[in-house]
Amino acid sequence: MDSRKQEIPEIPSIELLKEELAREESRYGFRKALLSAAGVLVVIAAVAALLATRMFVLIRINGNSMEPTLKEDEIVFLRQTKEIETGDVIGFYFGGRILLKRVIGSAGDEIDIDSGGNVSVNGTKLDEPYLTAKSLGKCELEFPYKVPEGMVFVLGDNRAVSIDSRIKAVGCVQEDQIVGRAICIGWPPGRMGIMH
Predict the structure, then answer these.
(1) Which active-site residues does the annotation give?
(2) Average pLDDT for residues 95-111, to the nearest whole number?
(3) Total-model pTM
(4) Is 138 left (phi over 0), alpha (psi -120 to 50) or beta?
């Protein structure tokens, strides 16, 4: 028989085993929660990408033709729709770009703009609180002007510089050119908000 005593390992107490089990369960729970959160983020990113490509279009403002409503370098969300109303700011395709202008009249409406820049639709002068200054601007049309079928008449809010339906090269916007209606400003933070 060996004179050396064999050392018997110490058996941990039940409390110690419970603590170790709780730590392992906590680590497993944290990993599970982390994987779950990552999965949720992937789904949210996929839904956001789908919405961005199917329902909304982001436009960065280039120029000052819609000031003071929209300023250069702002980012605007357009909701893709063909359902628009007079007064809406819409995006439409022109020359390979998307332009933003305000709808003034639709098919059959008679538009008149006097030398002072006052706009009338079907004989009623428009109240345009979104303008800082009225101007006839550059105009190649004779007024009164009747909007053709399937089209809308658009003007920029900065009438002195805007290139819009008053210019024959742009003219009235066909319904199939319309991308959608501007619904909110997304950037910069100080200007974020729903458009009216």
Answers:
(1) 65, 101
(2) 95
(3) 0.73
(4) beta
Tokens of 146: 């009747």
Instruction: Render pLDDT for 115-162 as a digit per residue (tens, 0 to 9).
Output: 999 999 999 999 999 999 999 999 999 999 999 999 999 999 999 999
Helix (H) or strand (E) run with residue 177 in it: none
Dist. CA 61–CA 65, nearest whole Å: 9
> Quick check: 163 and 71 in contact, CB under 8 A?
no
Distance of alpha carbon 32 from alpha carbon 36, whole angstroms? 6
d(CA 46, CA 53): 11
Residue 19, phi then psi, degrees to nearest 5: -65, -45
Q: Tokens 């789904």 appear where?
A: 43
pLDDT band at residue 18 using 50, 70 and 90 as cut-offs: confident
Q: What integer is the mean pLDDT of 76-92? A: 94
Return the residue matching tokens 């120029």: 63
